[in-house]
Amino acid sequence: MALAAIRDRIPKLGTLFAGRGGGGTLPFAPFEWTIAGRYLRTRRKEGFVSVIALFSFLGIMLGVATLIIVLSVMNGFRKELLSKIVGINGHIFVAPIDRPLTDFADLSERLGKVAGVHLALPMVEGQAFASSQFGGSGVLVRGVRADDLQKIPSVAKTIRGGTLENFDAAGGVAIGKRLAESLGLQAGDTITLATPKGATTPFGTAPRIKSYNVAAVFEVGMSEFDGTFVYMPLTEAQAFFNRDGDVSVIEIFLDNADSVGEARGELELAAERPVLITDWRQRNRTFFSALEVERNVMFIILTLIVLVAALNIVSGLIMLVKDKSSDIAILRTMGATRGAIMRVFLITGASIGILGTIAGFVLGLVFSANLTMIQRTLFPGAWDPTVRFLSEIPSETNASEVVAVVAMSMVLSLLATLYPSWRAARLDPVQALRYG
Q: For the whole model, what pTM was predicted?
């Protein structure tokens, strides 16, 4: 490009280069931003370079947005599964070692007074077969006291039919919604439960079969629980499973599910007898470890999208430097320093990455915040709760993870501009004008 053309397009360029006392301009001077901005604009001659810049921008935007959305969904899955699995099963489990838990009432009272304990719930647990005139299914029967059942939010606050009032006196049972649907039952109907652990006779143990009134139907929101859990009064469960005034386990609900490590020692002291203590992390270690591994692998895989987009910035800038070699030579002969040339192309490449990161940040947050609505609008019925654990796609955005994604994308974008910018700064103006 001719010197006169450069002067016409950037007025008083020589004055800008001169700076103070001929010592050069300050870093990131206005003329550097002006040249970088013009290099980013689409023109017929450099249209291909601009297309590469556009694809780099879209790649970084989609990569950042996808990372934020996927991490939000993974966090939402962990939170929902943790709240449902732990919310209905408790955080710590106290089982007997040397003798049955016949002193469960006093023991539960002592454990309930430990700091950080929300509820100590004695329970009789056993497997049974539930049936009605419409079918049958294996179930997990849990015998609990009525007052304790009212303190389990996953059950007490999700009643879809019937009531838990007078649960002990009524002698009925509470069943999950999906179990009720599979057996064709609703509140007020009769369900038949059968267990092989019945009465002991001279000819062996006879199965016990008994019918109960369905007092309430609850919906935890997790198909595995809604399809298998049956709650009955504690005294009735003791009789049904031949428990001689004892319970199977005492479940401890803490104020903070992640503080099980600190609570274990105090619970052992409060028990005042040998007990076996386990927690939700031990029982669900494989499940939540798999979620964590999947989350980390997805982060690595999706980061490659941003990396590929950053490499597109490298290729686009190298082509731009080659195409603008004559311009670079003229700018150098007019007094532009190597640092100024490097900063021009640094601004050009970084602008693509930073603008793409900001666009991806906004897109990811908007999509994550409205993920449930988008799912219900575009894919109604696609999230089948009978196949999956949850009835809808959960999402929870973590601020620290979003900051890490944005920072990672910006750092990759800046690193991608270093080599092309350095190459432009090292360009020999004499050779460029001779062969340009």
A: 0.66
